[in-house]
Specification:
alpha+beta, flat
Length: 81
Amino acid sequence: MLRKVLSVLLICLVLIACLGTAVNISSAASLPTMPPSGYDQVRGGIQRGQVVNISYPFILTVNIGQLPVFQWEEVNPLILV
């Protein structure tokens, strides 16, 4: 008897999880397909930087790895005020 109750409970939980996933997937259709106008225009007041590669050693294989990292430009805080 207890086994049947647990089986039914498990099936209900799986169905609830599937329904919740289906709702999340269908909500992606309501997202905008195009970015807002002006997203690709140069604007002031935004910090800028560049992507640089840093090297680091793999300890086990004694190789050198490369990792791209975003590095902020140095900004004078007095200018931003």
